[in-house]
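Reminder: ligand-aware prediction takes two inputs, not one.
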Amino acid sequence: MASSNGNGNDSGNGNGKRSLPQIGADPVANLPAIEGFPASEKVYVEADGLKVPVRRIHLSGGEPAFDVYDTSGPQGVDPHHGLPKLRKPWIDARLAEGDTGNRTQMHYARRGIITPEMRFVALRESVTPEFVRDEIARGRAILPANINHPESEPMIIGSKFLVKINANIGNSAVTSTIGEEVDKLRWAVKWGADTVMDLSTGKNIHETREWILRNSPVPIGTVPIYQCLEKVGGDPEKLNIDLFIDTLIEQAEQGVDYFTIHAGVRLAYIPYTANRTTGIVSRGGSIMAKWCLAHHKENFLYTEFERICEVMKKYDVAFSLGDGLRPGSIADANDRAQLAELETLGELTDIAWKHDVQTMIEGPGHVPMHKIKENVDLQMKLCKEAPFYTLGPLVTDIAPGYDHITSAIGAAMIGWFGTAMLCYVTPKEHLGLPNRDDVKAGVIAYKIAAHAADLAKGHPGAQRRDDALSKARFEFRWQDQFHLSLDPDTAKDFHDETLPAPAAKGAHFCSMCGPKFCSMRITEEVRELAAKQEVEAGLAQKAAEFREGGQRLYAGSDDHHH
Ligand code: SF4
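Here is what comes back for the chain with iron/sulfur cluster:
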């Protein structure tokens, strides 16, 4: 188990390359370099005694530089040592000041304390620290920040803030290594993942997680039941609450920031899934259903929920109350099993809040567009506005290979209706473990969905980037258009496919419509013509006025001359 005293471990001790646990060869020896974005620099905006990261995009044509929210974390750090421990002094100071044993941001918020984490988030989101504190205190937002993950840069998940996205990584029993997962983590946060879930299920779960946590600038979530199942040799019947609590402590000591816990899968709800098209599709849900039926007992995660709360509050791990009975197909959307579980999640939210444990609620899954709003309305009502965190939803089942798209459509809608965080889906969904390219495709699809939701919600400032990019596009500042985009590399590559010459970057057309039919160029000419006509009309008017008044003027002059 990782060393820890509640202050973060000491992996960054600088004694050579080997400070994180090794299994065989150096797992990160051949990691591909993560390139920065073109024309961008990482800048720390200093305010309120804090340094908040942004990515500054430099533009041409006399346009001011444009700052964007940046999740990529400190760059150029040796992964063997892990990232700097940004929050360690804050955590130490709080514990020294008077530790009650409850270390959650919600606990501090409810006692009227504005933590440095809350101030950091306020700067990141351009709101007041008091607003952040109030949203956390009332449970409408969470700030996932395990005291043993001091490397994380504070962020917030709540319906009144920017919509966030989560990327899943993690090896399976079948494929991938620690190095590949560290690479996926760094890759996902480069493209904008706000949190990352480590869903590792194979060997070396503990070590993989350690490497991920020490190198993660964003909160890390896990599904602890996966590791429990490994510990009992893959037989769900052998699971029990003591093993579960031990595993929670092990992971909380390492610094996991939120746990998906399927405590809402109650024995009585399992029969509701009998006639479903796709049964139970959540891995955690199916494991707990198997346990409940094998023992014919109520889910121990439900009956022992308060014991779980005791662990959560000691480390400030947030609940992500799992939707183990989420629909796995359009046919099963909003059915009795799903909604019965949601009601139980509302009940558990009250218990978590009694302990000041930060809580968000997981949601579906597969839902057609006309049934999406009902999901949000019910969740808000039953879970008292605790942040909603949904997987997609996929709005149709017919496009395996493109489920980043089927789900981003649902994600954009559900985000607009008030979902706080969207869990990405990659093109490999239903088909295989995502690789690096799939991670990028999933993150970009979800950045689009989240931003579209921010726009629709009228989030202050959300439209500024759209306006800056559109202006660059209309003024044929091609490089600026690429640089302001979510994926500059792809935008530039597509442009270069047909017009690779450097001169084309100054051209007033592209190969889509061609020079004669470029509507934006024609508009430019229309405007020039209109302006010219206005000038001409203006001159004509002046001339007319001159002629009219000229007499007088001329007469006046005459007078003067004579
Ligand atoms: S050619 Fe068409 S697509 Fe290309 S810049 Fe002009 S209007 Fe836009």
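Residues 509-510, 512-513, 518-521 surround iron/sulfur cluster (CB under 6 Å). Residues 1-16, 555-562 have pLDDT under 50 and may be disordered. We will return to this case in the review session.
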